[in-house]
Amino acid sequence: DATYRAHPALVNGLNDLLAPVLGQARNDWEASFSPLTPARDRAPRISDETFIEVQLAVGTKEEAMPLAARTAVERLLDFFDQGYSPGDVAILCRASTSFAAYEDALDKAQVPFITLAGRGFFQRPEIRDLVNVMRAAADPTDDVALVGALRSPGLGLSDVALYHLAHGRDAMARQARAANATRHIPLWEVLSAPPDDFPREELAHLTFARETLTTMHVMAGRVPVADLLKYYLDNTDYLAILAGAGQNRAVRNVRKLLADIQTARLVQVASFLDWINVVRDVDVREGEAPVVAEGAVQIMTVHRAKGLEFPIVVLGDITRAPGGDHGGVVIADGWIAWNPFSSSGKDKSEPLFYELLRQQENRKGEAEDKRLFYVAATRAEDVLIFNGVVNSRSQGGWYRWLQLALPELDAFVKEEGEGKQVCRLGMGGAGVRCVRVEGAMTSYRTFSAETEALGPPIFLPDLLTTFAPVADALDEDARQREQEPEPRVWRIFPPEEAHAWAPAWVVGRLVHRAIELERMSDAPGFAAWLEASARGLGLSDDAMIRNALGRVRRLLRNLAASDLWAEILAADQRLHEVPYAYLDPNGVPARGTIDLLYRVGDHWTLVDFKTDRARDRAEMEAIIAEQGYDEQVRRYAEAVRALLDVEPRTVVCFLDVEGRVAWSVVT
Q: Are residues 495 and 609 in the same domain?
């Protein structure tokens, strides 16, 4: 089986490791060992004699697991110094319950990492902190939540300040008992009247905390939970505090929480707290916010790592054994067997069929465990590290497979004190770097992202030139069309100043809508449609509506009686209100809308309708030049030439020149 993943030295070591573990299959549910053939010609980034390591911390699981995790991280720091990056590393465990020690060790070493369904999103310190704040905002008399909120980075009271508040509450309680007014005094009451011995340097913090929580309590239930949380984050500069402390991971998680709450559309704080409680009760492991644009160590289960590969793989908590208790009942291959004595504790004997079925299920479980071990070990490209805790009781899990492959391992583990040794796989096979640690680690290193990689230089394509946004060239009509919100009469004319003369822009808008629909004043239902359209633009005064409708009818009658309209109706193709967008010859984005574009045969005509009033043709030409209508239609013509590759006749049409339609051809 050719593999292009690992380099030849690691492949040879994996063969020596896996051969005694998998062996030859004796049942159809077992997998036989088949040696891997190295096909990768790329050498590892480092030069070393051993590419498989075993790191074991001696002691109880509770005491030694943090040491084992820290040992793994210390070794990763060595690799980072040699050119690897955190993004090259994956820590794989059998179960997510093993993640916590590695998360803590990476945190202490300031190594960026991401846990895929790890400790739990809602168990992160920054998330628990914000939940406490929301509880306190909903019910300030909840002493536990209030203490958590006051101690949070956002409000920042010290332990000494909290002690004085609690001491002051005790004094108030004694006074109440002396006055025969025994009652529970919430800590919240003390915030308004702190004791005399309260630290003066923290009075400002106390006042800020009280005012912030008071405001949030008033807001709670009246604004969405997302807005309430956003107020706290902004008011306390919470994200800036986290970022200043180097907690970029916490910043991402807080932003994810805010986004999740906003998506859930929660309004009541009680609903938010119920949501949190449900998630915790069912032990849902919400994934944390993903790392963007930075390499990070990935922590995940082996099952999740199937199909993936990483330059450096750490198999964590290797002595963790899978659960094998059948609970007195075994169901397998269509058979069921039970042990009636399993709960009595008096008789250790087991029914024969139950024992046979249980042993067969155990062997199947062992075969599956070997396959999982194979999957985990073959995820590595350059280096494979086994890490865990060993003692007289913790020698199960994958550690027993290492015992099969490393005959010298047991003797090495039983030696006193810390030690390092190169053990051989099988009979003189590949070397394995074995490390034994005990006690507490006295020195700690931290990760520096400034270490330069020794690998091949990263390919960086030439960047595009800096983008400088250019405002679109909009004509006045397009600018008015895109105005938001759409102009309405009440926005232009306050009611008390209204006159029985409709605004010119309203008349122009109604005329253009009628032309677009080719709906002239003699069309059925025209009066009702025109009145509804006028009211839609904000006209409400009856006299003003009558004025607008009369002026619109007059302009449309002028158009309907003109030769130009007759030519338009006889055209082979008519396009009303034609939007366009393109880059003009100067590279500036140009947008607009053409009133009418029609074709007669192979000839196109562009018409721009105007409702301006002119006494005669000379005044019309003057208005065209003064208002820049000629330049406007030239831009329209340029757009038509660029987009349709045709040369249109360009017309500016006035609907009221001496009581009739007149137009000017612009060249």
A: yes
Distance CA 559, CA 126 (A): 71
The band of 439, judged by pLDDT with boundaries at 50, 70 and 90, is: confident
Using an 8 Å Cβ cutoff, are 45 and 366 in contact? no
Is residue 546 predicted with pLDDT exceeding 50?
yes
For 253-267, 450-464, 576-590, which range has the lowest pLDDT when averaged over its residues? 450-464
| Residue 60 dihedral angles phi and psi, to the nearest 5° | -70, 160
Q: What is the pTM of this model?
A: 0.49
**Residue 386: helix, strand or coil by DSSP?**
strand
Residue-wise pLDDT tens digits, 138-148: 888 888 889 99
Residue with tokens 């004796």: 26
The pLDDT of residue 117 is: 55
Rg of the Cα atoms in the chain: 40
Q: What CATH number should be reported for the domain holding residue 344?
A: 3.40.50.300
Task: Say whether both 351 and 392 belong to one domain.
Answer: yes
Residue 48 within any structural domain of the chain = yes
507 and 633 part of one domain: yes
Number of domains the chain contains: 3
Q: Is residue 446 part of a domain?
A: no
Please indicate, yes or no, if residue 649 is contained in any of the structural domains: yes
Q: Are residues 305 and 362 in the same domain?
A: yes
More confident residue, 357 or 629: 629
User: Does 330 fall in a domain?
Assistant: yes
Place of tokens 């709960």: 343
pLDDT in tens, 101-114: 898 898 888 888 88
Tens-place pLDDT, residues 477-514:
655 554 444 454 444 444 444 456 888 888 999 999 99
- Alpha helix positions (H), 436-575: 476-481, 489-492, 504-516, 526-536, 542-560, 563-569
Residue numbers of the domain that contains 298: 2-119+294-437
Q: What is the 3-state secondary structure (H, E, C) of 137-174?
A: HHCCCCHHHHHHHHCCCCCCCCHHHHHHHHHHHHHHHH
> End of a domain among 281, 315, 338?
281
H helices of 245-284, in order, are: 248-264, 269-281
